[in-house]
Design brief:
32% of the residues lie in helices and 23% in strands. By secondary structure, the protein is of the alpha/beta class. It has two domains: 250 residues, Aminopeptidase (3-Layer(aba) Sandwich); 122 residues, Alpha-Beta Plaits, CATH 3.30.70. It has a six-stranded mixed sheet with strand order 1-2-5-3-6-14. Strand 1 and strand 2 form a beta hairpin. The chain is globular. The chain starts with a helix and ends with a helix. The relative contact order is 0.19. The structure holds zinc ion (ZN).
C-alpha cells in the first residue's frame, strides 16, 4: 500500500476550506477563507498578507525563499453555487471525508488543489532554491478581474502554477479564447395573417444562425508547437477543443403569435482554439451572416504557454514521474492563467480533481489525485 499520509493531511485541510461556503460574490464567506488561509500560514510560521486590489476582493499573498528564479503558485478561493440541494447525496458544505477522498462543492474546483498548494508551500518554505509566492484569489469563477488580473500586473515570475483540476494528469498549457456575440434581426411588424406585408425578424435570425454555424468548419492553422497540445486536448476532452465551437444560448424577440416580429436577438457563444484571433473570427462571422447585425458582447484571445520554456519543460518532466499518463494539453475552458499568458508569463494548470465533476452535483476529489499533485508540486519546487 502506497503511503498517502500527506494526502490525508491535505484532505483534512481541504475539508476545512469546503466547510466555508465561499460562493463567488459572497464577499463575507470569501473573506472568511482568506482569513483562514492567512491564519493557517501564520500557524506554520509563514507571514501572509491580505491585499484588496479592489473593494471586497481579498487576495492572500505570501512569499518564501530567496532564489533568483520565481515561481508563483495560484489558487482560487471562490466556488460556483451548489444549485439544487436535493440533487446532492449529502450536504455540499459538510466537508465529508472518507477513505478515498473529499466530497462537496469546491472539493475538486479547487479547494483540493488550493490545500495541496498550501501544504507544499509550508513544507518547502525553508528548503527551496526558488523564490516562491503563494497567492489565493477571490473571483476566478466570475472572471478573475479583481484578483488574478492584478497579480499579473504586479508579478512577472518565471512560471505560474495554477492548481486547477486536471485529474493530476492533464498539464494545461493553453486555453481557448472566447467570443460571445448577439445576432440582431430588425424587421417590420404586420398582422400575422398577412405576413408578406411585414419582415419577420425571427426568421432572419434563424437563417443567420444556420449560416453562422458553419464557422465550426473553418480550418484552424495552429503554430507547429501548439498542434500536439491541441491533439491531446481533443483526445482527452473531445473534438470540440479543436474547432471554433458554436452554441446559441439565448433568444429574445416578438410580441405575440399574431404579430410579425420586428426585433429578435440571439446570444451566441463561440470558443476559439489557438491558431485564430478574435479579429479573424469576427471577420469570418461577418462574411457568413447575411440578414442580421453582429454585436460583440465579450471577447478574449486564445492563449498558450510554450512547452519548451525551461521551467515548463521541467514541470512536465516532474509531472510524468508521478503521473505516467500526464501530457500537456490545450483546454476548453478559461482560467486565471490567461491573465499571465497575455503578459508573456508562462502559466501551467495542474491539480487534483476531474473535469467532469467540477461545477456538477456531488463534486468530489480523490486522495490519489491529491497525493500525485502533492508529489509533483513538492519535487518541482525542491
Ligand atoms: Zn477552478
Amino acid at each position: 500500500m502506497e503511503d498517502r499520509s500527506e494526502a490525508v493531511e491535505i484532505a483534512k485541510l481541504a475539508s476545512d476550506l469546503v466547510r466555508i461556503p465561499s460562493v463567488s460574490g459572497n464577499t463575507e464567506k470569501v473573506a472568511e477563507v482568506a482569513d483562514f488561509i492567512a491564519e493557517w500560514m501564520k500557524k506554520n510560521g509563514i507571514s501572509a498578507e491580505i491585499v484588496n486590489f479592489e473593494k471586497n476582493a481579498p487576495v492572500v499573498i505570501s512569499q518564501v525563499g530567496k532564489g533568483k528564479k520565481t515561481i508563483l503558485l495560484n489558487g482560487h478561493m471562490d466556488v460556483v453555487p451548489e444549485g439544487d440541494r436535493r440533487m446532492w447525496r449529502a450536504d455540499p458544505y459538510s466537508g465529508k471525508l472518507n477513505g478515498k477522498g473529499l466530497y462537496g462543492r469546491g472539493s475538486a474546483d479547487m479547494k483540493g488543489g488550493l490545500a495541496t498548494m498550501m501544504h507544499v508551500f509550508a513544507e518547502i518554505a525553508d528548503k527551496t532554491d526558488y523564490k516562491v509566492i503563494f497567492t489565493a484569489v477571490p473571483d476566478e469563477e466570475i472572471g478573475g478581474e479583481k484578483g488574478a488580473r492584478h497579480l499579473a500586473d504586479r508579478y512577472a515570475p518565471d512560471l505560474v502554477l495554477l492548481g486547477e483540476p486536471s485529474k493530476s494528469e492533464m498539464i494545461g498549457l493553453g486555453e481557448k479564447g472566447l467570443l460571445q456575440i448577439k445576432l440582431i434581426g430588425e424587421g417590420r411588424t404586420a398582422h400575422a395573417s398577412l405576413p408578406s406585408l411585414g419582415k419577420n425578424a425571427i426568421m432572419e435570425v434563424v437563417r443567420d444562425i444556420e449560416r453562422l454555424s458553419k464557422i465550426s468548419n473553418v480550418r484552424i492553422n495552429a503554430p507547429k508547437e501548439v498542434r500536439p497540445l491541441l491533439h491531446e486536448g481533443v483526445r482527452r476532452l473531445g473534438k470540440d477543443v479543436g474547432v471554433i465551437t458554436f452554441s446559441p444560448g439565448t433568444i429574445n424577440g416578438g410580441l405575440k403569435p399574431n404579430v410579425v416580429p420586428d426585433h429578435c436577438e440571439v446570444g451566441i457563444d463561440m470558443r476559439l482554439p489557438p491558431g485564430i484571433t478574435i479579429e479573424k473570427a469576427v471577420s469570418i462571422a461577418q462574411s457568413l451572416v447575411k440578414e442580421t447585425k453582429i454585436r460583440i458582447d465579450s471577447a478574449s484571445e486564445p492563449n498558450v504557454t510554450s512547452p519548451s520554456v525551461k521551467e515548463v519543460a521541467r514541470f512536465i518532466k516532474t509531472a510524468k514521474e508521478h503521473s505516467p499518463n500526464a501530457s500537456p494539453v490545450i483546454k476548453n475552458g478559461a482560467t486565471d492563467g490567461c491573465y499571465f499568458r497575455y503578459k508573456g508569463v508562462p502559466a501551467v494548470g495542474f491539480g487534483p480533481g476531474s473535469n467532469e465533476l467540477t461545477h456538477s452535483y456531488n463534486e468530489y476529489v480523490s486522495l490519489r489525485e491529491m497525493d500525485i499533485a502533492y508529489k509533483v508540486y513538492r519535487d518541482f519546487l525542491l
